[in-house]
Amino acid sequence: MKAGGLRLYAYLYLLFLYAPIILLPLFAFNDGTIIAFPLNGFTTKWFDELWTIPALHQAVKNSLIIAISSAVFSTMLGIFAARAITRYDFPGKAAMSGLIMLPLVLPEVIVAVSLLVVLLAMGIPLAFWTVIFGHVLICTPYAVAILSSAFSSLDRSLEEAAIDLGETRMSTFRLVTLPLVAPGIVSSLLIGFTISLDEFIIAYFLTGSEPTLPVYIFSQFRFPAKVPVVMALGTILVILSVVLLTLAEMFRRRGVRRRGGVDTGGFL
Fold first, then answer.
1. Domains present along the chain, CATH in parentheses
2. Which of 5, 123, 189, 256 is the most buried (most CB within 10 A)?
3. What is the pTM of this model?
């Protein structure tokens, strides 16, 4: 009975959490501009209209550039930080690890406003790279968490064997370590890309004259006639996010199996 009650609670919680997302595609295919029941009929015209909006295309391009750059830079920083955390002991290690993970617990609006104040005080204009900087700050803790798990479950004897056979530490890292943690790297890239693509608050404060996709979507809610188009776009983004997170989890689990470690849980 207790297990059944917990299962029922979990189902109700998931329903409450994802009910708005479930309603999103319903209104995206609704033949009407008013978001309300009853539905007027089935249509795909809102999806067709997405191809006719140049501003939307530019926003998608901006977001893709920023998301790819943020994912790559945060993963690179995550590799270095995770390697240091899992392999070496040095003064202030715990404090530095906590500082790296701090953006996970800080409200994003505080981070965004702080970055904006610093950039304006330094006279730095807002542009693509300022948004990338903010997104790297947010994505790096996720990369460190994923890659720390990958490095910590790696058998050190493999690296020691490579060094004993004449490889340098750098070539051992490149030829042995990186291939073994490659699934974790791919998972980090996918998670970073997804987070950056969907992130709104930092992009809203730090973007220049060319908005990202979430900022563009927010601006369209001022026009009631554009809401169905936003619903159609949101449906595509939800599907894309689910696909990317699923791929990231698949690569994470593949990495655990390759290293012979124990799966302690992931994203799915």
1. 68-210 (1.10.3720.10)
2. 189
3. 0.79
